[in-house]
Amino acid sequence: xxRNNQDKKIEDSVISIRELQKSFGEHDVLKGIxxxxxxxxxxxxxxxxxxGKSVLIKIIAGLILAxxxxxxxxxxxxxxxxxxxxxELRLKIGFLFQGNALYDSMTIRENLEFPLIRNKRTIPxxxxxxxxxxxxxxxxxxxxxxxxxxxxxxxxxxRIGIARTLILKPEIIFYDEPTAxxxxxxxxxxxxxxxxxxxxxxxxxxxxxxDLTCAKAVGDRIFMLIDGKFVRQGDFExxxxxxxxxxxxxxxxNFIQ
Length: 257
Fold this sequence. Notes:
The chain is α/β, with parallel strands linked by helices and 257 residues long.
């Protein structure tokens, strides 16, 4: 990439991280990492369990304070932002949790209405109804509004989790292991949906996954987090075209076993 294109990419970043460090006691989790998420990009972060992937996302969202370094979201420094501005900023960020985080006692409609009513208390009922139908249609489940989560398959619950994220129209989405526990066909459908969401809703995303098929299908760039640092980054072929056994182990586990 030439210098002009590189500068343009940096200016187009919706998240910019420099020299980020985080420790818990004597355990150094993140050891001075840099990352830029560009507008409209799907960026995949991979690493072993406990490598700090979820800690990274929590720091970006302002849920955990970094020990040092800078984290800017839409050019706002997370470590220096006031509470009011941080709350407003979080409304631009959506989360898809690994466990879907749906309320079992609520219908799908009620699950989707909840974040709208909580964050936009004056929104008219007809706008709520339209928002619910729009996001259900977007995830391919237009007739599920009156069902309960237990009536849906695991893959359908993941879709509703995405719908609930989309209902606040976030500009950034964090996906935490979006294909975990899904069969290969349903995983493929989930990958297609994440790509559709990016194009339809103009989102930028960070995707945490151990699933290399998912990483290859949705990731514009892949960052490999090992021992608290990004040891390799690039597209799928660039990352895994290496003799580094720490990285090859991910490939072998997914595609050889």
